[in-house]
Amino acid sequence: MPELPEVEALARFLREQTTGRVISAADLGSISALKTYSPALADLVGRPVTGVARHGKWLDASTGPPGDPGPHLVFHLARAGWVRWHDHVPATPVRPGKSPLALRVRLADDAGFDLTEAGTRKRLAVHVVDDPHAIRAIATLGVEPLGPEFTAARLGELLTARNQQIKGLLRDQSMIAGIGNAYSDEILHAARLSPFALTRTFDPARTALLHDAIVEVLTDAVVASSGKPAAELKDAKRRGMRVHARTGQPCPGWDGVPCGDTVHEVAFADSTLQYCPTCQTGGHPLADRRLSRLLR
């Protein structure tokens, strides 16, 4: 799933490529992807793109000339969605069906982009709205972790709001916007914290350590993604991971010195997480509930 760093890079890329260009067509390839009916997709046609913003993991393309704000094309790529840019959009008509193509946006000079989604579980969401905050998932987003409002004190308030595993809090979009499964693994490894640590056990020193890790990991990832075209962002993300999706591989440790352990994996919610026992859990592997169920 694209997370804050990749979505920020996509926002910057689309902003650079589309701002000032006029939308000439918006063709739906997946009827289930469109979640709104008014304004209509057709209302985007003939309007210039005036900017592209990010809200957590959501992308927001605004339209309309100065003084005449038009509808916003807002979309969430979900787990398997992506943006594919075309310098020249294919001439083949878009036909709703089983294709990965969810939406094609054509610009007046024949450039444009596709929203695509792999797999059979279609969760990519497209909204056309006058105000992005009319979308409940955006209106209820938590604090922006790279914004000035995200301080160690604010994080401390979130940690004490409810006693839960820290991995779950990091992924909760109503608490902190933009972090998903991959970067929560990376943040917890950087902070050398167990993903199952309970939030109300954090003292000020531990809270400051976690705050620094969140800001550092996300900032580094944004910098690494910056300037890359959409087609290269997935590979850049994979290369930057230290523990996520590296099960069984040597833990990279710190300061260029491997710790000597390997990356472990356990089930968490609807996915899996990766961590290093030596760096994060005092050398003790976490119990994997999947194995526990098999042994019953």
What report would you give on this structure?
This protein is α+β, with helices and mostly antiparallel strands and 296 residues long. The chain is 30% helix and 20% strand. The protein contains nine helices and ten strands. Strand 3 (58-63) and strand 4 (72-76) form a beta hairpin. The two termini are 33 Å apart.
List keywords for this structure.
296 residues; alpha+beta; N-terminal domain of MutM-like DNA repair proteins; Helicase, Ruva Protein, domain 3; 9 helices; 10 strands; 20% strand; elongated; DNA-binding; DNA damage; multifunctional enzyme; zinc-finger
CATH architecture of the largest domain: Orthogonal Bundle
Q: What separation lies between the terminal Cα atoms?
A: 33 Å
User: What structural class do the secondary elements suggest?
Assistant: alpha+beta
**From the structure provided, what is the oligomeric state, counting identical versus distinct chains?**
single chain
Order of helices and strands: HEEEEEEEEHHHHHHEEHH
How large, in whole angstroms, is the Cα Rg? 21 Å
Assign an overall shape: elongated
Largest sheet: 4 strands, antiparallel
| Helical content band | 25-40%
**Low-pLDDT residue spans:** 292-296
How big a fraction of the residues is strand? Answer: 15-25%
How many structural domains can be distinguished in the coordinates? 2
CATH fold-level topology of the largest domain: Helicase, Ruva Protein, domain 3
- At the first level of CATH, the class of the largest domain is Mainly Alpha
Per DSSP, the total helix count is 9
Give the integer mean of the pLDDT values.
93
Main sheet strand line-up: 1-6-7-5
Organism: Pengzhenrongella frigida
Keywords: DNA damage, DNA repair, DNA-binding, Glycosidase, Hydrolase, Lyase, Metal-binding, Multifunctional enzyme, Zinc, Zinc-finger
Catalytic activity: Hydrolysis of DNA containing ring-opened 7-methylguanine residues, releasing 2,6-diamino-4-hydroxy-5-(N-methyl)formamidopyrimidine
Domain Formamidopyrimidine-DNA glycosylase catalytic: 2-124
